[in-house]
């Protein structure tokens, strides 16, 4: 595989694998639904994130109708029967309900509880209705769905709430669709903040590429205008919220007085002692009207109490037979039942209850998704009346309503961010609109003793002649740990360590070509900590060893290495790494570890060195007061020959803040000048050509010019390149004082 083929394969956009041509679609579809279905059919494996009432059922039915072979639709309980009824109204292909898949039909539908009975080999297409069931990484059905249907050619996932809590939850949908593994997504696009927050967030430079990638397999729409269509009939009616608070004198379990609950356990206790009061408050309103009412509970006792207090109310609980559940839910959807009492876990997903516009919450859990989905059974497109929603709580339940409201605001912000970030790309995908793209560019700048090359190091190093470089020193991207740019050419944009290794190998091959026989390459690196979320375990990746083996594979000889000491206390304070925390030592020292040092590893190209290196050890470079006298100081040699360099000042770097752009992560930190200085003293002569394929802001060039070497640097990122040119021009003109920065070091390398 050549380099261009590798880059094409590396591209993170999940390519279409669906129908090459789409026949005419059902004329009953709205224009936006038709275009989404057409896109999804061409995609082959797609997700439709459409708000409640946007016609997900119609879209998935039409998608299934055009998929060749047998298609299985998996849906929540009772939604199956509703989907069959919708298919009849929609004039879609007949759908057969199946409990075990023993007799596959063209389009079958079943419930999530029964999918284990189905052989995926019997189907070419799979549809997940209410696919938010995938959202939890540790959920009951997630892994089974991904593994069971991983080889099905055509896959469609549909939900209104793909990531109600965190953008990371999108990784589960991506993995189900075969777009990317969740762990790979974390490597490519997310960074762990560490510290007290312990949150994963999208990397600064990865934001654009992340949403571009999501839009390669998903469409997000809350209303037609999100994709540039007329909203028309898709305008929600008013929603009137009313909170009713009942007063309680009853103390919760273990309490002497009635006090506001603080913990989850206390809130649950408060709900139990106020069941009767809350149920009576609800029953008074329901019994005073003849209109249809939907009552949501959280506890079985709440449901039982309400059923006793409301004449004619139909209770639907988890222990009921599937036949009773289905009969009751469908009866309520048709308007045959005036009052239904149930839980969000039972009927909160997928059902259409537009005939009802009175909604009651007599019990609230802490799940905003359940609350949102439950409301949207009635408050959805197609509802013609103002929806009245009553939230009935007690004064001792604590901040349960405020907690839901906070989560609602968080979810709303997330949805708005998803729509706004996906709008332009989705419009392009769905409607064929144009959007601008940045292009890869190259440039050259030079001085008397230096040359900088903007561009991809794998490609630009090919411009250098064979056996033309005396020494190379650099710090490569640390696999997928950091993202420096949004370019696929950036080695930091790798989905895992293996992809980085394949990318890096192209460079090592060229380094072997340009380095003179018998001369050296030194690279700075560290071993990489793992995370439980990303890797499944807490430990270390032998990144140093991987790099050594990459060089050995091309013919280099493992020459030597120096360990660069780093203060573990500083690392603990900065990263809050669990293995460095004293409390972990007390809790379970099996998880405790040493700090992760830096390494300067040196590799040698075989052959005779025709220009012996004189060993320019006439001055000390380190964090101390030692001053050598004499060109070949034995004292200085003993310090440099130490396998552990304890005297490197971690803040001895070039000024780099002016090279940062607004999306740069805090990890940006040039290689310490003292490390570069020592390497140049040991393994190069004055007048030698020194190469850095990852020049950054040209720290290696700065020291090379200062020590009388010639420098060639290659850098992919324009902002770094611009600062590198300034730094090299300044040092060549003997302007040093403005370039050094001994202030706040912002590395984030653990």
- Secondary-structure content class: alpha/beta
Examine the secondary-structure arrangement and name the CATH architecture of the largest domain. 3-Layer(aba) Sandwich
Question: How many independent structural domains?
Answer: 3
The poorly predicted ranges are 254-259, 433-438, 737-750
- In terms of DSSP E residues, the strand content is 15-25%
> What is the CATH T-level topology of the largest domain?
Rossmann fold
Please give the radius of gyration in angstroms.
Answer: 32 Å
| Overall number of strands | 28
Report the mean per-residue pLDDT as an integer.
Answer: 84
CATH 4th-level superfamily of the largest domain: Vaccinia Virus protein VP39
Tally of helical segments: 25
**N- and C-termini, Cα separation:** 34 Å
Describe this structure in words.
This protein has 750 residues and is an alpha/beta fold. It has three domains: 31-179 and 216-235 and 413-433, 3-Layer(aba) Sandwich (Rossmann fold); 239-398, P-loop containing nucleotide triphosphate hydrolases (Rossmann fold, 3-Layer(aba) Sandwich), CATH 3.40.50; 469-741, Rossmann fold (3-Layer(aba) Sandwich), CATH 3.40.50.150. It contains 25 helices and 28 strands. The strands form six sheets. The chain has a nine-stranded mixed β-sheet. A seven-stranded parallel β-sheet has the order 3-4-2-5-6-1-9, with helices on both faces. Strands 10-15-14-11-13-12 form a six-stranded parallel β-sheet, sandwiched between helices. Helix 10 (275-287) packs parallel to helix 11 (300-309) and helix 17 packs across helix 19.
């Amino acid at each position: 595989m050549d380099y261009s083929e590798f880059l094409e394969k590396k591209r993170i956009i999940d390519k279409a694998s669906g129908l090459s041509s789409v026949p005419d679609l059902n004329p009953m579809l709205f224009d936006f639904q038709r275009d989404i279905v057409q896109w999804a059919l061409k995609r082959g494996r797609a997700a439709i994130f459409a708000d409640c009432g946007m016609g997900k059922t119609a879209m998935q039915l039409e998608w299934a109708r055009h998929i060749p072979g047998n298609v299985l639709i998996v849906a929540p309980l009772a939604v199956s029967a509703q989907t069959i009824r919708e298919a009849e109204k929609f004039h879609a292909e007949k759908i057969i309900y199946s409990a075990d898949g023993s007799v596959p039909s063209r389009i079958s539908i079943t419930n999530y509880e029964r999918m284990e009975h189905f052989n995926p080999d019997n189907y070419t297409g799979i549809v997940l209705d209410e696919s938010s069931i995938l959202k939890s990484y540790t959920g009951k059905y997630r892994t089974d769905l991904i593994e069971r249907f991983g080889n099905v050619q055509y896959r469609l996932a549909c939900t209104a709430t793909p990531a109600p809590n965190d953008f990371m939850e999108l990784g589960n949908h991506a993995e189900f669709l075969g777009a990317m593994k969740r762990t790979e997504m974390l490597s490519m696009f997310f960074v762990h903040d560490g510290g007290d927050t312990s949150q994963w967030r999208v990397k600064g430079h990865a934001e654009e590429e992340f949403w571009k990638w999501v839009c390669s397999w998903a469409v997000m729409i809350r209303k037609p205008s999100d994709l540039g269509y007329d909203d028309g009939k898709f305008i929600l009616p008013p929603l009137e919220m009313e909170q009713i608070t009942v007063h309680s004198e009853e103390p919760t379990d273990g309490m002497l007085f009635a006090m506001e609950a603080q913990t989850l356990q206390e809130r649950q206790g408060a709900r139990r002692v106020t069941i009767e009061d809350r149920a009576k408050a609800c029953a008074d309103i329901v019994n005073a009207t003849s209109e249809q009412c939907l009552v949501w509970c959280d506890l079985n006792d709440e449901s039982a109490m309400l059923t006793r207090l409301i004449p004619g109310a139909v209770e639907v609980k988890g222990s009921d037979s599937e036949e009773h559940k289905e009969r009751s839910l469908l009866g309520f959807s048709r308007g045959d039942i005036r009052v239904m009492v149930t839980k969000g876990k039972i009927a909160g997903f997928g059902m259409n209850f537009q005939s009802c516009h009175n909604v009651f919450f007599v019990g609230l859990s802490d799940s905003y998704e359940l609350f949102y989905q439950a409301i949207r059974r009635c408050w959805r497109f197609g509802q013609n009346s103002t929806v009245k929603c009553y939230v009935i709580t007690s004064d001792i339940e604590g901040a349960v309503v405020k907690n839901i409201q906070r989560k609602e605001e968080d979810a709303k912000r997330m949805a708005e961010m998803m729509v706004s970030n996906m709008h332009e790309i989705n419009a392009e995908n769905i409607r064929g609109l144009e959007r601008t793209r940045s292009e890869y560019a190259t440039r050259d700048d030079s001085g008397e003793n230096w040359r900088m090359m903007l561009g991809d190091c794998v490609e630009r190093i090919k411009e250098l002649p064979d056996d033309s470089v005396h020494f190379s020193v650099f710090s490569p991207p640390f696999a997928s740990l950091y993202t420096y740019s949004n370019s696929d050419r950036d080695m930091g944009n790798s989905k895992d360590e293996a992809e980085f290794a394949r990318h890096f190998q192209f460079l090592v091959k060229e380094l072997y070509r340009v380095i003179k026989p018998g001369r050296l390459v030194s690279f700075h690196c560290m071993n990489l900590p793992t995370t439980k979320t990303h890797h499944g375990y807490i430990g270390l990746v032998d990144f140093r060893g991987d790099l050594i083996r990459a060089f050995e594979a091309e013919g280099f000889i493992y020459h030597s290495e120096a360990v660069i000491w780093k203060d573990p206390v500083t690392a603990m304070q900065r990263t809050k790494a669990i293995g460095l925390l004293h409390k972990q030592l007390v809790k379970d020292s099996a998880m405790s570890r040493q700090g992760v040092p830096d390494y300067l590893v040196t590799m040698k190209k075989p052959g005779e060195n025709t220009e012996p290196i004189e060993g320019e050890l006439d001055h000390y470079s380190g964090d101390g007061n030692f001053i050598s006298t004499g060109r070949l100081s034995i004292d200085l040699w003993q310090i440099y020959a130490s396998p552990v360099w304890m005297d490197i000042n971690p803040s001895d770097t070039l000024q780099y803040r002016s090279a940062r752009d607004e999306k740069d992560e805090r990890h940006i930190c040039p290689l310490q000048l003292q490390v570069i200085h020592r390497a140049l003293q040991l393994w190069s002569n004055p007048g030698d050509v020194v190469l850095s394929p990852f020049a950054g802001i040209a720290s290696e060039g700065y020291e090379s010019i200062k020590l009388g070497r010639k420098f060639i640097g290659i850098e992919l990122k324009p902002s770094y390149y611009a600062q590198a040119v300034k730094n090299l021009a300044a040092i060549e003109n003997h302007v040093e004082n403005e370039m050094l920065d001994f202030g706040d070091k912002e590395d984030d390398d653990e």
